[in-house]
Amino acid sequence: MNYDLIALDIDGTLLTDDHTLTSNVREAVREAHGRGAEIVLCTGRGPANAIPVLDKLGLAGTMITHNGAATVDSASRTVLHQYSIDNAEVARFRAYCLEAKLHFDLNTAFEMLIEDITPEAEAMYRLYGASPVLRNPGDPLPEGLVKFTLFGDQAELDRVEAEWNGWTHGLQHIRSGDYFIDVQHRDASKGKALRQLAQLRGIEQSRVMAIGNYFNDVGMLTFAGLGVAVANSPEAVKEAANVVTRSNEADGVAHALHAFAWT
């Protein structure tokens, strides 16, 4: 086995566009695990809708969630490490979205909170298997927030992202998909969380493999000894990777594992 730790993004990478885990991908991931690699889902999702994917793989263990803002143990449902964000900083992004009538959710390590719901947002949550909890907008923001996520159409988010790029603030915002912008702690990233986990396990960087598809995956792709971008990735993500595999619609994860993980 060439790699002791294999980090897998979920959406657009492990799953097809309709969020299906194919049998080819499942069996390849399980084979990698059976050969001795630790499989770590490394995702922008929260644990609540990432754990079901791990269950479908027939695996359990450590997951890097919320783009590295919360590392959790799937079996015990405990937080191993998290980067909480300042509610005063979050309030500015929330106020912007309220004024612009843009949908958002607020995330602690294990809970997703919303203040309203639109048909589009409801369909999106259903697609991702998420079950947000409706909060009272008049209540104080909860403690322990790790991520604020904005959802909208691509052109609208392009405009918001360009405007937020001009802001000065203590957080970071990152595009985690065509229809999502995530706001979180400056130190939170998939790459940093993967590095911390590898160090904890005593695994050399050269023995880490990562597969992803979007801008929030670049940190882990550049950290890993082998960073693999699926073919449906933006060009900048492909350029950050060492190699490019097939798309998520063509069992790219399975192809990459067979091609590189144990040959």
TrEMBL record:
GO molecular function: magnesium ion binding; phosphatase activity
Gene3D superfamilies associated with the record: 3.30.1240.10, HAD superfamily/HAD-like
Record's keyword annotation contains Hydrolase: yes
Record's GO cellular component terms: cytosol
Keyword hit for Hydrolase: yes
Keywords for the protein's UniProt record, in alphabetical order: Hydrolase
Protein name as catalogued: Cof-type HAD-IIB family hydrolase
